[in-house]
Design a protein that fits this description.
- The chain is built from no helices and 6 strands.
- The chain is mainly β.
- The chain has strands at 4-6, 13-14, 27-30, 36-37, 50-53, 59-60.
């Protein structure tokens, strides 16, 4: 079970549905190297309570890629 994710600095895009419905995910760190977060990337991650987005993330694709923030 995946509870915490720190995306590597060599990652530039989080693809659509990458962590969709990952119900046990509680925290994620997205580094500045990531410039795009795909549609529905974190949708249905209902346990997600701690999100760190470092400077550099420029685009959240349409849909609920960022549903976890709201």
């Amino acid at each position: 079970n995946l509870h915490s994710i720190t995306v590597g600095n060599n990652i530039h895009t989080i693809k659509k549905y990458a962590f969709y419905n990952c119900e046990v995910l509680t925290e994620i760190t997205i580094p500045g190297s990531v410039t795009t977060v795909g549609t529905m990337a974190f949708a249905q991650c209902n346990s997600l309570t701690n999100v760190e987005i470092q400077n550099g993330v420029l685009t959240f694709e349409s849909g609920k890629a960022y549903q976890f923030i709201i």
